[in-house]
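Entry:
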Amino acid sequence: MVRDVILLPYTTSLLLGAMTRPQVALVIGILAISIFPVLIKLELAPGVISAFYRMAFSAILLIPYVLLTKRFKLPKRKYLLLSILCGLIFGMDVAVWNISIQESTATQATLLTNLSPVWVGLGMFLFFPNKPKKNFWFGTIIALMGMIVLIGTDFILSLSFDRAFIFAILSGILYAHYMLISKNILSKVDVLSFMSITIFSASVFLGFVSYFLQQPFSGFGNMGWTVLIIQAIVCQLLAWLLLSYATQQMRATRVSISLLAQGFISALLAWIFLKEQITSQMIIGGIILLIGIRVTFIEKSFSSIRVRKRNQRLKLN
């Protein structure tokens, strides 16, 4: 056990060293965002106002830096409007997901929200020339099977179609729209400028929504404010700067399917910090889920691999 703990940092560094920069950014981004359901489940602030402060604190930290270092570049009108739209969509996504987590369980909300790769794949298939390969669909099926094993069929059969259920599904659909639109924008706009615009527009939008819903803007206590700041710095700035960079450099379908790992990591964090039970079933499900994600990263389709092997056999004969 001691030897394994000592070798863990070395093994991790070897794994990260074998990955490309976008893949490393994706892994770290997923780790950073995985603590979010645990923080929200503490229920130290209402869902919508929590989403507002996540965006507002991020804007306070990011925008002055971008302006002072002159790294902000105003995009063309088309991409400016699309970036603002992304901010509104992402703000709604976080708000409804927060409500879903608080009104049900972190597991249910994360499961249903993480159906977003299906919506992303369908969107890519219907509206984009770069269609998902068969590997994506095969890997998605494996990953979803892993998620089912992770939470158990009994849990799925006991899902109630209440507001929390609807909001979790809506969160996944909103996130899929965000991924598809942002992928198009990030081919023309740099990550920092895009993040600045989306965070600012999301902050303004969620501020108005919070005021309209009469949500409290204060009175959360020291722990509540600390959690809100952590959400802004770790779950928003760190996570989404890295995930936006990964989205810019990789296929949107790959990024979205990789985010399924968030459910597994969040379960581990809930076990550590919230004392939630973790079973062998959850571990097996997590392994299957990660295998599915790995399948989506195979560059060549299975059919092309079979053709190559067949040609090699013919040459040998």
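The radius of gyration is 20 Å.
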